[in-house]
Amino acid sequence: MTATSDFFKFAGSALVVLIAPPLYLMLDLAVVGRLGGRELAALAVATLVLAIISTQLTFLSYGTTARSAREFGAGNRSAAVREGVQASWIGIGVGLAIIAVVYPLAPVIMRALVPDTEVAAEAAGWLRIAVFGVPLILLAMAGNGWMRGVQEVRRPIWYVVAGLSISAVLCVLLVHGLAGAPAVGLNGSAWANLVGQGITGVLFGSHLIAESRRRLRPDWAVMRAQLVMARDLVLRSAAFQICFVSAAAVAARFGVAQVAAHQLVLQLWEFISLLLDSLAIAAQQLVGAALGAGAFAAAKGNAKRATLLSVGLSGGLALIFAAGITLIPRIFTDDAEILAAVRTPWWFLVAMLPVAGVVFALDGVLLGAGDVAYLRTATLLGALCGFLPMIWLSLVFDWGLAGIWAGLLLFMLTRLGAVVWRVRSGRWLH
Length: 430
What we know:
This is MATE family efflux transporter. It is found in: Membrane. Keywords: Membrane, Transmembrane, Transmembrane helix. Helices cover 84% and strands 0% of the residues. Helix 2 (37-55) crosses helix 5 (117-130), helix 4 packs antiparallel against helix 5 (117-130) and helix 12 (336-368) runs parallel beside helix 14. The protein folds into two domains: 4-218, no CATH class; 231-429, no CATH class. It is globular. By secondary structure, the chain is mostly helical. It has helices at residues 4-33, 37-55, 59-73, 77-113, 117-130, 134-149, 154-176, 186-212, 220-252, 256-292, 296-323, 336-368, 372-396, 400-425.
């Protein structure tokens, strides 16, 4: 069984990689926000589209980690790296296809999302530049996947931080024309994004070439197996997206204060998800390696340790949020209506956190075991039988935020039952 220090080492590496892009986006928004409201709105919409595209393709990191970790655990590092080579080919191919579709259709997409023609035009211009970075973003995802699989901890951090640091500097210089740089305005943000993502992608790609000893020929059998796993992960991710978009749409119908309160608590939930996801990724790495080595007792021990650590973290956060119900929301707003509305989803969040601790940890365990089809089915079941019905019933019967967040809690409880049963059954060990 793996030491607790290993969990925190792998989780810390994953957390930096997960949290760095949102932190950069906050800087980007702050820099562009000084140009004006139109530019800020355009950036928000354009980055949302790019984020949705990227979110649907996270199978390149999560799926590759699972397969690469198995090979690494079996003592076959070259096969683990080969998984990274094939995932990189998929990422480059999909990325080029996305460019071919999004570049000509960017104005159409933005006009469909934004009624203001000027904002739509600005957003389309930003997207048309930034979309050329998508193949490199996907190359970096694949790189993170196989490097997690072979338990490389520091290198992915340096690669991600190097690219985003250069993006941050270029964003400040190009948007406002500082230090002799041309003042490009909103498009300066897009060029900064493209250069930074390009640097990160090239770093991951260069290391892959060195590790694979230039054995880069496509292996269609491996790619087909990866794409089967990708199908299940994409469906699972799409279920999450549909649920949360539906929740936001329904919350908006209850009034400004209600939707603001919903988004405030939801942003906190997403931040907590990053913390828990970092432990889940560590579980995925270690369980996958143990199963690859045929060490079933170690895999079960790692699953138990991951769950205890995750529940300990989520339980501690639940206590902090329960105690801080009157103080923490005031960090974000002093609006009395929003503060009053926040209390309802806040208590649902507190109740949900210990449940989430178990769900995230066991999700990581089952991903490490390659049990992706089961996770897909469990997530779709929770979405279709729990979250979505409660969201829309809350609109029909005017249940407000209580109905929406009861749906999210029911979603988590459904997934809890599914993953606990699966892990206890032992079927994931084969």
